[in-house]
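Risk register update: the risk that structure generation would not scale has been downgraded. Supporting records follow, first protein first.
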Amino acid sequence: MELAFPAQEFEARLTRVQAEMREHQLDALLVTSPPNFRYFSGFDSQFWESPTRPWFFLIPAEGLCTAIVPEIGAPLLKGSWIGDTLSWPAPCPADDGVTLLAGALERLPKRFGRIGMEFGRESAVRMPLNDLFLLKERLTGFELVDGSPCIWTIRAVKSAAEVAYIHQSCTVVCDAFDKLPGYARCGLSEREIGQRLTADIILGGAHSVPFMAAASGWGGYEQIISRPSGRTLNDGDILIIDVGATVNGYFCDFDRNFGFGQVPDAALRANEALWDATDAAIKLAVPGTTTTDLWRCMSGVLEKAGAQGYNVGRLGHGLGLQLTEPPSHMPGDNTVLQEGMVITIEPGMEYAPGKMLVHEENIHITASGPQILTRRAPRELIVIGR
């Protein structure tokens, strides 16, 4: 199995999560979701697109881990840094690894009688619920509890190697965005522009582009999550493209706005207000600041600029092996920024009914101040064909 990091990186993650497990009184963590399985094991495959077979990664309170996987995956995991690999012939709907998994769990020392699973926020269990219920019935002396706080605590703080991959993905997409004004023009569709942008991102060195959203309209847009559509760009339009590309699984997540022809003055002013809000939040993003502080900072700038609302619910989030990770920059989140976190700064505003604009940059929290991983958008909107 080819690893994106040296084995020492995964061993360090194991040490950190086991310390968290002791704090939360867990005898083990049972991981099933692709991002967490990859984070702890190093295993990466597009085979995750097949939902037929469950995969289990067992992290004990002490010692090395055990991968409990379908036979098709065993050769990749055996002989790696992990420890033990158990497998069963799958798919086997009558017993898809449940007996094997229950046996491995029952052999664990029972200090606390608690096994953590991905039950919490922004988490999911990737196994049939009926199998989860059956597993619960077969366990004696263990209860299944939420272990996601342990996972998110250590995933929130990135290593230098993780940050380097995120930075690389940001650079590749920035390079591709820089080329866009050279080919985009009125009369082309969002889809045509998005296809060219995707090609440039892949040719530039990204490993995948799992996420690309685009929207356009005269002077702005009303949503920011749809795929690039067949809508053609016209005079006065603003096009947003939001990209999540990966290098070795690590995402960038940022957008760029482009105007076409004669863009309304109100939209140009809103664009500058968003740049100012982004700038203020970046300067504030240092260890000790909270996510609520960031939200207040951005919303204050936007309110002064006449913002009429925003329907997304937050103004940025964490970033890493997933396009979006905790925390959320919103009232009440109150997560304290720590050195090593990577976050997005994502202010948005509706400056007129049905007319929204959004900016987004990616930054790394360091002791010496924020490191901007993207190349910042200019304060003045890039306008094509003016």
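Supporting record for the second protein:
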Amino acid sequence: MNFVVVLLFAVLLMAVAFAGLAIKILTEKKGEFPNLHIGANPHMKERGITCAQTFDKIEQAQARKELRFKELSLIKEEPGSC
């Protein structure tokens, strides 16, 4: 019986928290969730710290440019061969 009471209390507490967030978002002029992404933080940008996901995407794009798969050949062609 005590478990059920604790579970109901936890669910009620979570419902109140979600309702509070919803009311805050609806009542603000530009109601939206705060952007907690590291890349959007101006202080992090000043220090040169970027988001790991963004940094990884940039590195992958640079690696793709360097590889140039269209020019890649599995058979080494020697000069003078048919």
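DSSP finds three helices and no strands in the chain. On this basis the risk owner (M.S.) recommends closing the item.
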